[in-house]
Amino acid sequence: MQYTGERAREREEDLLRKNHSLNELVRYYKKQLGARLALDRQTQIHLYRQQYTDIGKLLYLWQVAETRQLTDHERVYLAGKILHRVSGGHDGMGTLVRDINRQFGNVLVHLQDDFPDLKPEDFKLFCYLAVGFDNDLMAELLGLSGKDLLYTRKTRLKKRLEESRSPYRDLYLDLIKE
Hints:
The chain is mostly helical and 178 residues long. It has 8 helices and no strands.
């Protein structure tokens, strides 16, 4: 059907309005989807960290158990709980690394690719932050004598990640957010 004159102009204006409305609708839904994905990532990180909270407490108790009088039964129970979840690999990081990679799309592989000169202590710190270990436990596991040293390391790691141009930068920062 051919439109001419006034009718053609009206048809063109109608199509432009519809196109504009469609573009607005697409922008709105993209914005909503972006907000939902960000929320879902935060929820996912929170739930993931929650499962390690008790494990972190148990591990901390085990670390300081040498100075306390625990029965053999209590030691075996603590060791079993901790080793079930955190053991394996070098320095007990194997299962932890596998869990983080499985949960967050091989994020630690990308981290090592993006930062090939990342020190093993900083890699461990990233992992401990990702699972939400508390400051006392992280200081104990990293062999740091005080919280000031831990704060310095965390600040240095965060700054390095913020300066990154990696496509995974936002995920890295979300994972270490406390």
